[in-house]
Amino acid sequence: MTQTYALFFDIDGTLVSFKTHEIPQSTIQALTQAKANGSRVYIATGRPPLIITNLGAIEPLIDGYITTNGALCYVGTELVTCQPIPKEDVLTCVNDCQEKGNSLIVVGRKDVAVLDPKGDVDRIFRQMLAVKNLDKASPLDEVLQQDILQLTPFFPADYEPELMARMPQCVSGRWHPEFTDITANGADKGKGILAMARHEGFDVSRTIAFGDGGNDTSMIIQAGIGVAMGNAIEELKQQADYITTSVDDDGILNALRHLHVI
Fold first, then answer.
1. Domain coordinates of the chain in residue numbers?
2. ∠ at Cα 35 (240, 258), nearest 5°?
3. Could you tell me which residues come within 8 angstroms of residue 192 by beta carbon, excluding any fewer than 6 positions away?
4. 87-184 has which CATH code?
5. Average pLDDT in the 37-63 region?
6. Between β-strands 104-108 and 148-153, what pairing exists: parallel, antiparallel or unpaired?
């Protein structure tokens, strides 16, 4: 007998393969069946809405979105939560990247700015992650007039503690060796699940979160059941309640079957 849950899915490396840049057919079929069985389907991603362009066939199944690592959550046109980064911390990061010549993505409430002096954004986001819509980026000075929800600076992990010490009102969620996602202290995917549960009226114990990267840790811990993909980083696997196969080896399908969701 199947059971119903609120299901939360990371995108890159969880729903979408890093190899094909597509959602495996087995995942599409599994989510379609889970939805038909009464479960709810939510996205929980570090991507801002502008660049959530790779969900294709499953978009009609989605009940709500946790975006920018929990800084912006919404259901349809209804805002669930919005937690901007304090301006002083935004300027600390922007100035640091400009001084060092590092690439940076600045995510505003409406628009995105891209500083890419070294070509890192183009190389990783466009070429490796097949991210679309970055050509719609806006000038930095215009985006800085908006609430800033997320900063994505490009630098090695060993520099992270030094910068974050100067951004005391922020938290870092690294899921790639070359860059990290920085949000306000009160924003992460785990807190996004809590906000969505309050808004939608379900119990957190009836949630399952699926992820593969460091920025998924908070939701893997927060959810009633935390599932790490077979391709997940080791640190995430250690926090998970269940480890499934990789995104390319029917990981979502196998997990939903194992947990009797389908």
1. 6-82+187-258, 87-184
2. 40
3. 44, 66, 69, 70, 73, 81, 219
4. 3.30.1240.10
5. 96
6. antiparallel
Instruction: Return the C-alpha torsion angle 243, 244, 249, 251, nearest 10.
Output: -130
| Backbone Cα Rg of the chain | 18
Two structure tokens written together for 31: 């989510």
72-105: per-residue pLDDT in tens? 999 999 999 999 999 999 999 999 999 999 999 9
Name all contacts of 131-134 with Cβ < 8 Å and 24+ positions apart. Answer: 131/47, 131/51, 131/53, 132/51, 132/53, 132/54, 133/50, 133/51, 133/53, 134/51
Two tokens at 55?
């969900």
CATH fold of 6-82+187-258: Rossmann fold (3.40.50)
Residue 137 confidence (pLDDT): 87
